Amino acid sequence: FFMALYFGGNLELDRFLVLLLCMLPVLFYFIGWFLRVSKNHSAADYKSSLRMNIIMAVCMNTAFIILLILR
């Protein structure tokens, strides 16, 4: 919410959309993982959490590279 206010106040909504779009894979993975864990508690393991962190790191790096290119 605060990011949207910051980017909206500075008229940089295109950059906000880049960040938002790059975070969609993380959101989809997290929702899928949450649904798996709610059905089976053994799905809450280290491997799944590490996979989510790797996806998040790749997505954030991609977002910042795109923002640098657009700059």
Descriptive notes:
- It contains three helices and no strands.
- It has 71 residues and is mostly helical.
- The two termini are 23 Å apart.
- The model has no long low-confidence stretch (mean pLDDT 87).
Q: Would you kindly provide a brief summary of this structure?
A:
By secondary structure, the protein is mainly alpha-helical. It is built from three helices and no strands. The longest helix is centred in the middle third of the chain and has 27 residues, at about 15-40.
Keywords:
71 residues; elongated; 85% helix; mainly alpha
Number of helices: 3
What are the low-pLDDT stretches, counting only 5+ consecutive residues below 50? none
How much beta, percentage-wise?
under 5%
Average pLDDT for all residues: 87
Sum up the overall morphology in one term. elongated
Distance between the termini: 23 Å
Most strands sheet: none
SS-based class: mainly alpha
Nearest-angstrom radius of gyration? 15 Å
Spell the H/E element sequence. Answer: HHH
The helical percent reads over 70%
The total strand number stands at: 0
What are the SSEs and their pairings?
Elements: H1 2-9, H2 13-39, H3 46-70
Helix pairs in contact: 2-3
